[in-house]
Write a structure and sequence with these properties.
Length: 179
């Protein structure tokens, strides 16, 4: 596996695949108690290789450094399962790119607990607790070891998809300012 640096500090290239951390808005106003605020962040994938690859996008999970530079604990929960959709596992051909943005929410769990919540892994959620104003850093991790996967599709039932990129990537951090 070859790693390459890029002119863009938010991008890493592995075997001809570029991964870039995306933050739709770098400055977010946190909600007042009882309200919610939406945020979008995610990953851009650019295929510079000569092989088309699929990516299982719901497995891109955020990692966040708090305003003290410490990793925040991510909590994963799942109480349902949903079927795979074509947009979950795009086939990115050479020369093409794909943007995957997560719609997440800042919301209040209690008077003293602001949380950041998003969807993940086909019916699951991730949560970061005790969000405060300040400078945060966000990046994404993704790991896949299977070239072929059997998945539950809405119309077809359980079918096998192939062509998945195998490997592990941790995208570079990008700043997110919360006020």
């Amino acid at each position: 596996m070859k790693f390459y640096a890029s002119d863009n500090p938010n991008t890493i290239e592995i075997d001809g695949i570029c991964f870039e951390t995306l933050v739709a808005e770098e400055i977010i106003c946190l909600p007042k108690y009882g309200e919610q605020t939406s945020v979008q962040f995610g990953v851009r994938i650019v295929n510079k290789s000569s092989t088309p690859y699929r990516f299982d996008l719901p497995y891109f999970l955020p990692e966040i450094l708090n305003n003290y530079g410490q990793f925040m604990q991510i909590y994963l929960n799942k109480n349902a399962t949903r079927e795979v959709e074509d947009s979950d596992i795009p086939l990115i051909v050479p020369g093409e790119s794909w943007e995957f943005l997560i719609d997440a929410q800042f919301s209040w769990y209690g008077e003293n607990c602001l949380q950041l919540l998003g969807n993940a892994i086909y019916g699951g959620i991730w949560i970061f607790w005790y969000i405060q104003s300040g400078k945060y850093q966000v990046r994404f991790t993704y790991e896949n070891q299977l070239f072929k996967k059997k998945m539950i599709a809405l119309k077809e039932g359980r079918i096998e998809f192939d062509g998945f990129w195998t490997g592990k990537v941790i995208t570079p951090f990008k700043s997110l300012y919360l006020s």
